[in-house]
Amino acid sequence: MKRLLVAASLVALTAVPALAARDQIRIVGSSTVYPFTTAVAEQFGKKTGMKTPVVESTGTGGGMKMFCEGVGEATPDASNASRRIKKGEFEDCNKNGVTEIVEIQIGFDGLTLAHSKAGTPMNTSFKNIFLALAKDVPGPDGALIPNPYKNWNEIDPSLPAVKIEVLGPPPTSGTRDSFHELMMERGALEIESLAKLKKDDAKAFEKVWKSVREDGAYVEAGENDNVIVQKLESNPSAFGIFGFSFLEENAAKLVGVELGGVAPTFETIASGDYKASRPMFVYLKKQHVGVIPGLAEFAAEYVSDAATGEDGYLGDKGLVPLPADRHKEMAAAVAAMTPMTGEGLK
After folding, report:
1. What percentage of residues in the chain have a pLDDT greater than 90?
2. Distance (Å, rounded) from C-alpha 230 to C-alpha 185?
3. Dihedrals φ, ψ of 40, to 5°?
4. Distances (CA, A) of 327 to 3, 59, 285, 304, 310
């Protein structure tokens, strides 16, 4: 009988996450989504009188790793992401017992190439960005060669005669993933020989657009976008890679580069005219709801009309809202705490 009781106790301990009474929500993840979540956290604290959630800027990849470590008070309750959760991350979550994840798409952000207002204005293309920053580029005969370009005008005479120097995020950042997919891959596809390579050998093509040069033209500047702003101010010839929301926050210091004649603005991102745009997400552990105080209420604040609706306060921070019908879908999913299935993840 005693053995049965011990066995039953062990089963109970493994079946139910060991959550202590932590009374403050903890959120990690994307530096791009960080200001939006921080604003929602502050509103949540004011409206409910509960402790304002702790929000850490760890980068999307770093945040998902922490989020997927398991269930319990030692792990985050939510993770911000400037891209959708990857299939491998979702599988890691499930392996570690994080089996009920609520996906909240909060809106859109544009990925921008920006420079100091003291710099030379530039209107360029995805192709030129690829040629400036790819590790290997097609040579005169179409064969891949190490990137030979040192100055922008060597790629296109209409571009400034300044050294190619772009400060951007590290591999752990969702912004880095978005940079590859929204700018580098598109740029590669605008080059005939690489478009052909994609048809002939998709894996070889992927390696080309995912490989950034390592000779100093691309500078990994960490997860803190403020550091990039400081460096751009001290070097007006350099460019930085940011989410549009951060560009908006620093509009007095920075200006966004036009892509194909379209400048990154709230209106062009919402309309789809600015092509380098991406969805923003927050992922929530349903298993922590009802255990960590206020988690459901925090999620409800995030999908409220006041926050992410057409005229929500996050719009003032640069978030481009979802279409009205999609916003309603998100609000309904959060109200029901509907876990994602993992279908369609890459």
Report:
1. 78
2. 29
3. -65, -40
4. 53, 25, 20, 9, 9
Instruction: From residue 239, give the alpha-carbon distance in Å to each of 42, 91, 122, 164, 209.
Output: 32, 36, 10, 8, 19
Tokens of 275: 């092509």
Q: Each residue of 65-113: pLDDT tens digit?
A: 999 999 999 999 999 999 999 999 999 999 999 999 999 999 998 899 9
Closest Cα to residue 277, out of 285, 287, 268? Answer: 268
Residue 246: CB atoms within 10 Å: 24
Residue with tokens 């598109």: 186
Please name which of 68, 9, 48, 80 lies closest in space to residue 243, comparing C-alpha atoms: 80
The one-letter code for the residue type at 275 is K
Which residue from 343, 341, 330 is spatially nearest to 107, judged by alpha carbons? 330
3-state secondary structure of 118: coil
The pLDDT tens digits for 132-183 are 999 999 999 999 999 999 999 999 999 999 999 999 988 888 888 889 989 9
pLDDT digit string, tens, across residues 307-337: 999 999 998 888 999 999 999 999 999 999 9
Cβ proximity of 270 and 244 under 8 Å: no
Tell me the C-alpha distance between 280 and 266, whole Å.
Answer: 15
